[in-house]
Amino acid sequence: MRVKKLSLVIFLLTIFLVLSLAVQAADAGLIAHYQFEGDLTDAESNFSDFKVTGDRIFNSGGKINFGQGKNGQAAVFDGSSGLFLAENLIDDYSYSIAFWLRADAINQFTTTFFAGLSDQESGIESWISFVPQGPSGRTMLWSGNNWYDADGNFKIPEDQWVHLAAAVDQGEVHFYINGTEHFRGSDFPDVFSDIEAKFALGVNYWDNPFEGKIDDLRIYDQPLTAEEVAELAAGAEKIEVKAETKVELDPQSVSVHDPMIIKENGSFYVFGSHLAAAKSEDLIEWKQISGDWDASNPIIPNPEEELQETLAWPEPDAESTWAKSPIKIRAKDTNKYHLYFSSANWESERSNISLAVSDNIEGPYEFDRILIRKYEEGQYSREAGENFRHQKHPGVIDPHVFYDKNGRLWMLYGSYAGGLHLLEMDEETGYPENYNPETGYLEEGSGYGKKLAGGGHSPIEGGYILYNPETDYYYLYMSFGTLAADGGYNIRVARSKNVDGPYLDPQGTDLREYDSGSWADAVNYGAKLIGNFVFEKSELGYLSPGHNSAYYDQSSGKSFVIFHSRYPGQGEYHQVRVHQTIFNQKGWPVITPHAYNGESLSAVSGEKISGSYQFVNHGRNIQNGYKEINYSEEIKLNADGSISGEVRGSWKLIDDYFAEITIEGEKYYGAFISQFDRGLAKEVMTFSALSDKGVTVWGSQY
């Protein structure tokens, strides 16, 4: 009898736990939910009840009734009253707000949901307001911090239920009406991070109160996706909101944006934007050797003075320098370290690539000269011998200077605009072969070099070329998208037998054909090796991994990509990441799923491969929307060669470690390799494989 009672208790506890977890999953991120079912309580029990106000946010008096709502009952606003909510419902830069409203009358500037602070004494004007009729005459999300207008381009009607929602993620804002996105923008003000914000419904500090009904107010501590907002607008009582993963920083890494690698005196160095640099003995543990843009910087001391000429070329002046390309010049009697870099300003169309020189890899470097210039649209370009055209001529940033297999020196460069271009260099001077030292420009009309990829303002930059003697191919690595956490940076590759191309992707497409500014067209070009992803069980992942360099170690035969990446849940903070690359059966590189920790390719057995995996398909798109992350799915690689779980297919082990993975009829070619999973803190079997369509899949055992 005791056994039966104990079994019943365990069964009930199990059911309770499962239901609790299900509710937790469904409500992840929901921090306040006001349903107005005859009261003003928060159904999540996180915040206190509303307080009724008069016709302004702090005025007394007023009365709120309840009437027929969109879902059950709703709060009724009489045009002279409002509700003062709990303070600090939102206190950071990522959140969502959603609610239903039915306006009896619509007056200009009248608010429905208001949050923030207006304080004449301190001068703080930091607030947001959902306004049925803003200054444009249309419905909008309005911010009084720098007067940001998220205009919905539509005026909601009176006497109809309308669903409004907004999602803000570190400055990216999406405004929805009835589940449809009506506005998307960037640089939305950070209203709540540094103030004691007030929250209200129907009233603000200045304008006439709202008259009508409000129902089902929900506040989330993370941005909702368009699909999740659409579910709410369709009447869903609960939505499955995936809890945001916060990936912990790697304590062995450092922060160097656009890291370009060089090995010298037995040590690895990376140089990046803003004069940041770091050093490692093993590609695993990094030490910062330079960071701040100030007079004490060891790479280029007193940079404002030393680099005055190059900083002054953009208009307005550049405030710093961008990506660096370090190289030791081999020419006889030269033996100098050259640091090629770009100067640009986000507000200027003009940029340049310049050179600094040192006798020591760690500096100090002295400014030498400007080598190549970019101009404003329509301005005469000496290099081109014609007026500059952004759709045709290259963006003059992101240099990579390198030797080919025959010892010839080249510069690859470019960003968006007219694509990536290649110039041959004079090894004796370190300048482009067509550079005229007397004029300080490329020879007039000699051109910007040969185009290798892009054009038409296609979103490609950060190019890097690496020759692999084992395959006898040159590999052109590129970053598609933009660098911010929500910019969708992703690393792609094409290859050629010749250093100057043509560079083809696995589909056989010449990358010069991608000459469209359309981000959607990017799906057709290049092999996508890595983008936004999360291994959920490991709690590891990247946002906007990109601007890579690459390295081939002749002694070990190992190859690596070195790039920077943001992390989910860490805003714009970035770190250097090093991953080993393995060349598959068809001679294409695949990036291993975990950061390099000293592992080597070795023979593996089917027994070690069999097991449960976190599976990621990187797809082909640029994940430029917030929360566009490829989350891992759970699969099993079974001993009989089948794959089961959330995706189905088969797997084969070929010649010790090569992998052939088949998913839904599509074959992927790569390798199995044991790696250290720092999230799970253990060695796990992994695979990385690439299809003939340029799609990468990963697996990491757990």
Automatic annotation (TrEMBL):
Active site annotation, chain numbering: D258 (proton acceptor), E461 (proton donor)
Entry coiled-coil feature ranges: none
Gene3D superfamilies: 2.40.128.10, 2.60.120.200, Glycosyl hydrolase domain, family 43
Pfam families cross-referenced by the UniProt entry: GH43_C (PF16369), Glyco_hydro_43 (PF04616), Laminin_G_3 (PF13385)
Keywords associated with the record: Disulfide bond, Glycosidase, Hydrolase, Signal
Superkingdom as given in the UniProt entry: Bacteria
Presence of keyword Disulfide bond: yes
GO biological process: carbohydrate metabolic process
Associated pathway: Glycan metabolism; L-arabinan degradation
Molecular-function annotations in GO: hydrolase activity, hydrolyzing O-glycosyl compounds
Signal peptide: 1-25
Keyword Membrane applies: no
Domain LamG-like jellyroll fold: 93-227
Site (Important for catalytic activity, responsible for pKa modulation of the active site Glu and correct orientation of both the proton donor and substrate): residue numbering on this chain: D398
PANTHER family to which the protein is assigned, alphabetical: ARABINAN ENDO-1,5-ALPHA-L-ARABINOSIDASE (PTHR43301), ARABINAN ENDO-1,5-ALPHA-L-ARABINOSIDASE A-RELATED (PTHR43301:SF3)
Family statement: Belongs to the glycosyl hydrolase 43 family.
Designated name of the protein: Arabinan endo-1,5-alpha-L-arabinosidase
Organism: Halanaerobium saccharolyticum
